[in-house]
Amino acid sequence: MNVREAVRRSVEPACPAYPGHALTPADSGVPFGHVGTAAHPSGARTSTRSTSAGLSIEVNGVRQTIAADPSTSLLTVLRNDLGLNGPKYGCGLGQCGACTVLVDGIAARACVIPAGGVRGRRITTLEGLGTRAHPHLVQQAFIDEQAAQCGYCLNGMIMSTAALLERTPEPDDGQIRAALSANLCRCGTHVEILRAVHRAAALMRAGREPDGHAPTPTRRATALAADEA
Ligand code: FES
Ligand code: FES
Questions:
Q1: Which of 95, 108, 127, 151 is the most exposed place for a label (fewest CB within 10 A)?
Q2: Shortest-distance ligand to the CA of residue 191
Q3: Over the stretch 143-192, which tens digit does the pLDDT of each residue have?
């Protein structure tokens, strides 16, 4: 057994996106993010161009082939190669959550996942969640609650919230706090963020449209009225 395999086997539970990486459970063992390990080539912060065959990954429903080394971090590939700036570079160490994306619907830290580890997986970034004209319900809820000051943490907050509400449609305060506990906000907008998650949950319970986008204003108002009743 080589060193890489030994380290891989020592890491539990295995990351669904990249078996050699650890997962940090936020609540009830639900995988929330990733922690770099010795086997985790997260050091690359700039895309290393490869002369070999391109790296093929699926991002926001589109298959892309990129001339990047497989050990390049997913965050670098998303931002530098694909121009997707929704995921933010914060700590680069898997600890702040600013870079959060969804890997097969699971919130994951793009800064510590090598791009080569997500072949065959569905990557969703903030750009794939909704648009300015047609926001996702979670995005709409964060706008409604004005849950930001500088906004740097919001990509991670929104992506983590989207993942939470997929598995827990009606979370209580404790579940929300647990799910977002590894997303850091230095501005202290936690109260507004908590309200935004509850609002997003109410909107989604009231009738999600097939594409996950915001319902009509009337439908939204009805949902919120019912939730507050
Ligand atoms: S930048 Fe990825 S967790 Fe901080
Ligand atoms: S709003 Fe500034 S870090 Fe959260």
A1: 151
A2: 2
A3: 999 999 999 999 999 999 999 999 999 999 999 999 999 999 999 999 99
Query: From the CA of 153, how far away is ligand 1's center (Å)?
Result: 10
Instruction: Answer whether 109 contacts ligand 1 (Cβ < 6 A).
Output: yes
- What's the pTM value of the predicted model, to 2 decimals? 0.75
Residue 188 Cα, ligand 2 centroid: separation in angstroms?
Answer: 7
43-60 pLDDT, tens digit per residue, is: 334 444 443 568 999 999
**Structural domains in the chain plus CATH codes:** 15-124 (3.10.20.30), 129-228 (1.10.150.120)
Enclosing H/E stretch for 47? none
Cα distance between residue 155 and residue 157, in whole Å: 6
Interior angle at CA 209, CA 204 and CA 211, nearest 5 = 110
